[in-house]
Protein 1
Amino acid sequence: MTTQMSTRYAIGQQEVKTFTTQALRDAFLCADIMCADQINLVYTHYDRFIVGGAVPIKQPLTLENLDALKADFFLQRRELGVINVGGAGKVIVDGVEYELAFKEALYVGQGQQQVEFASLDAEQPARFYINSAPAHTAYPTKKVGLFDGNVLEIGSQQTSNERKVHQLLVNGVVETCQLQMGVTCLQPGSVWNTMPAHQHDRRMECYFYFEVPADQAVCHFMGEPQETRHIWVANEQAVVSPPWSIHSGSGTANYSFVWGMAGENLAYDDMDFHQPNELR
């Protein structure tokens, strides 16, 4: 099989206070999800969220059904979000092709039985970042371009966090059950994302960092506001954020990241903020 999936179980605040650096990375960092000619997935027990990647080069990749899902096909009880962070590609959903350029997104509704990923040019392959969450209703499959959703320009150069937030697969743009996704792009000279930091106890979130230069890195901050921890992240790596944790980051150069969420609330601004001088 070209589709592989590992499992991460939920971990509470008290446990994390005792973790070493490696234990934190083992629990929350998804380091190897973009591999040539494979679909690599991580099943988390935070809202049953799945995070992963598909990199088709030699041939298209099919999202195969997995025994762990106890389903007849992958999307029998799930919805899927895809954002292309590589060369031009296409996603084929039950025979219908959707071409995705760099940073374009696709929502695939519950009940679609076959999903394939393909690159238009093997020399510049597509790199599909994938999120999936449980679904209770079948909504239509829909493509969303980088500027087809809501675009927020927030932050400033003075606070090193000038950024554009592209709300792609969100309430008001696409009908979903609970999955929400978008892309945030840090502008040159800015390195801080999601500052002031926040939590949202009603849903979990996952950050996928990309456009990180090969010789640079991002320091991802997590944990309770008064008990923060950090994980150093390289290009095309993701960090799973539990509902009790803040999620913020600072890079050694500007970068972009995909944010994906699932839970009971579709309101993007459902956030409990913590100012920088309140963090410990």
Protein 2
Amino acid sequence: MKTDYVFPGRRVTAVSMVLGPVLLLTGTLLRSRFNFFFPDQLRAMGDHPALMTAAYTCFLAGNVLLWPAILALATKIGRTKPVLATWGGLFVLIGLFERTFHAGIDQAALGLTERRGASFAESVVSESYQDLHLFSFLSFTIMFGWYVLAFAAYRTKALGVVRSIGLATMGLLPLGVLKGTEIVSIIGTAGLCVALVPAGVGVLLESPKPSRKTVLLTVLAVPVLGALAFASTLG
């Protein structure tokens, strides 16, 4: 039996639209009291490890959770503007991959700070900051992709004017390793909430009630996934 299913499904997309932006904003606000540049971020990690771990983890989780939302928005745009949808969607997704790559370096720096101190971590980061890697050549996608996708969303009426502007503000978000919070960081993540959260809530409200089989499978899957997540930390 054929359906109108589009990967990864309406409910997953709705959760992505709501939680992704909210977690990004939460992580941004949690580290907002500390200065922006990496030496200050490393010192903050040494002085407030729990808070900074929570901040960077929330930001990373929000960044990873965004991909279904971007996929859904690009698909909607592509029904009338496929070229814009392709370029905007690809650029934003590559930008999300790059921020995830940066988050791995952030995590390594946090580990260095905890084990060897902020001064040692700062010397390592400063010496390797300009090292070339694949994503060095793709950094433009982190910012530019949001502008293309926002323009496409406005042109196709996938989003209204205000929400398209909110989407575009994500292009203001600073990029790179161990970047803290500036006012543009708050504007960008709050703008993303304006752009996507209402749509996510709308999708959830419009989704059909899950079947008993779906609920049962979900209940059974949750503890299994929890056990797999725990097992993953052992290797």
Protein 3
Amino acid sequence: MTITWRRVGEPDFPQLRQWLLQPHVARWWNHDTSPEAIARHFAPAVRGEEPSEDFLVALDGAPVALVQRCRLADYPQYLGELASQTEIPDQAITLDYLIGDPRLTGQGLGTRIIEAIITATWTDHPDAQSIVIPVHRANRASWRMLEKAGLHRCAEASLEPDNPADDRLHFIYRTDRPTH
């Protein structure tokens, strides 16, 4: 099975909407899923007006996931919130991700996708020294996947949750650029 990815385009918005409507995704992403809201959220990155890199991930050519990658420094308020609670290296990258089809969860696909994106990040962003990913403490599947992908929990932080029903406690995961 081959994992590939490409930048999200406007024709992908219906697929993203379908995924964001899935209960296992909606629980953690908590987005307005109207077509207009999807366009408002994703179109700026598609047009290059937002520094985030949004990737549609495919397994053997079939879309299965979304990965968002960005430099924390491009979002100073969020960086400040994180840096006030844990060390954030210069040029740190963060990722957000989802697997759209619930039938594909729990099978190691997320781990494989994150491992591949991390490997590509070291090439795509040669000045990035670390990848730092906050995960809500209740999202056990997500933080276990990060651990399986080789990230380590480096801190706990009080951060604004994506879902207002959640408390503020997040686990911070990190991996550093390999030195070999």
